[in-house]
Amino acid sequence: MMRASDDRLTIYERSRPGRRAFVAPLLDVPERALDELLPPELRRSEAPRLPEVAEPEIVRHYNRLSRRNFDLDTGFYPLGSCTMKYNPKLHERVAGLPGHARLHPLQDPSRAQGALELMWKLQQSLGEIAGLPHVSLQPSAGSHGELAGVLLTRAYHEDHGDRRTKVLTPDNAHGTNPATVTMAGYEVVKVGTDERGNVDLDDLRAKATEDVACLMLTNPSTVGLFEQGIEEIERIVHGVGATLYYDGANLNAIMGICRPGDMGFDIVHFNLHKSFTQPHGGGGPGAGPIAVAERIEPYLPRPQVIVREGTNGSGPRYDLDYDRPKSIGRLRGFQGNYGVFVRSYAYIRSLGAAGLREVSEVAVLNANYLLARLQREGVAEYLPAAYDRICKHEFVLSGTPMKRALGIKTLDLAKRLLDFGVHPPTVYFPLIVDEALLIEPTETETKETLDRFADIVAEILREAAEDPELARNAPYATPVRRLDEAQAARHPVVRQAM
Amino acid sequence: MAEASYPDDLLYHSEHDWARVDGDTATFGITWYAQDALGEVVFFEAPKLGAQIVKDESYTEVESVKAVSDVIAPLSGEIIEVNTALGDQPETINEDPYGEGWLIKVKLADPSEAESLMDAAAYQATLA
């Protein structure tokens, strides 16, 4: 039997000198001296320290690691604000076609017409969904899209001789919003939330001054509610000459139903890994495209994918346009993570406009169904809804009564859910709700899955009433038991000997 | 400290800070409620000695496993001492919020500001 410690070895600890997974074939071209091929100053002085492991050991190592993951192909994953919807396998097949997968990033545009056409058409589709005509696919994450948006705002104001210093964000905003504002050199000013869960309009009026560059907002908001004052918000923000920025984190609730551009937003970012089925990965590769209004267009990143009408009866020609003197410049190397574009374009074309609308309708229906199931007797008295309203694609519960009556915290409930094979919802966010649980079921889950989740939550509360220690020490059924998160943050071990 | 407590010899600010006033100096910290709501504190951003702080405004941050939070000054003044031991052991804020977990000492700009703070009973009433 394998010892527990063997099971936890890193790939480097499995390394033995001389072991190989791949043996290069004999050279069938004349050998040339290294110096002829690459000057010495560009070559490393010693061999890289790569693990030396045989192929079966590599396969077993990573297969073992993969089985310790919890993912969407394993079970229900209602992680609020993250839109963990199922990612259709068809998209992997399409993205894996040689014409997509083997494209070289340095290919001349004239030889990559199909790829540029796909990017152009994805831009058109995203622009239509956002209600804003001009799109850049360059930003490579949601946070990167935010940064692009705030840099565009600054470029717009400066081009109009206007130096502004502040950006407004709601007090329930994603942490990336204030972080982006700070990165872009602006001062963050927080706007309050009223008791209905909307932006506090009086507070917004007081803080929307002539030195405000932008308001960053998500709609529906981070508490899963449609921003009922959006038209008045638009008037206030544009009234002081600021831009209105749409964080696309919650776009899954409104696709094909209403459009940020029609609400008056100037800049929108999309999270292709949320609404548009790009698998969520450990930090990438991702895409966070942006769509902007006419007046922001001159500042978009360079180059832009463009189309020119064909001449002499030939079809349209796609190209990269670098001639953009007011552009904020390049945001990344090459043209972005192309495989991501293929998957999201496949998704949009598979569903079509009516299908995307149905996605949002079912996402909202599922969230409201699950909310209603969780507001029955046995759960509601411990986990009341933070706002008594019809929700959009997600909703917030407060664990405060549970903590008082049963002596278990939201964190304990979350950890105990793991033992039932369910990924916990987002916890302790948004910050404005005490002991918060943010639950987003998405449209790809069945009624049976939602019922089972509600039953599991009720079961955990019942067992906590008898023995709170059960939840306090959970999980029990996972590859590792409860981690000491505080100790990990206080004394992190960040080096691994190789 | 597992059980909630709010010592009678302290003054309290609505943003869950306490002040122990001694003539024209005072010691500041966060309340039992604040440390419990934050969860396990993992980092205390030590403010600079000599810095001027203003009542009701943030003078530093604490980070817990849940979030980074501003710490609000209950009174105005100049920082004359910082609890540097918290750098290595921020958990002291959870374990002993009114004792070893104190944050800073301040030379008060206007001791009469203390009249606006709450006593233990009034503060506890706001938590109910």
DSSP helix count of chain B?
Answer: 3
Q: List SSEs of chain A in N-to-C order.
A: HHHHHHEHEHEHEHEHEEEEHEHHEEHHH
Per the CATH scheme, the topology name of chain B is OB fold (Dihydrolipoamide Acetyltransferase, E2P)
Please name the fourth-level CATH homologous superfamily of chain B.
RNA polymerase II/Efflux pump adaptor protein, barrel-sandwich hybrid domain
Instruction: Please count the beta strands of chain B (DSSP E, at least 2 residues each).
Output: 9
What does the overall shape of chain A look like?
Answer: globular
Structural category of chain A: alpha/beta
Overall structural domain count of chain A = 3
Runs of chain B in which pLDDT lies below 50 for 5 or more consecutive residues are none
Q: Roughly how much helix do the residues of chain A carry, as a percent range?
A: 25-40%
Percentage beta strand of chain A = 5-15%
**Euclidean distance between termini CA atoms of chain A:** 26 Å
Give helix and strand order of chain B, one letter per element, not per position.
Answer: EEEHEEEEEHEH
Q: How many distinct beta strands of chain A?
A: 12
Main sheet: strand order of chain A: 1-7-6-5-4-2-3
What's the CATH H-level homologous superfamily of the largest domain in chain A? Type I PLP-dependent aspartate aminotransferase-like (Major domain)
* Bulk shape of chain B: globular
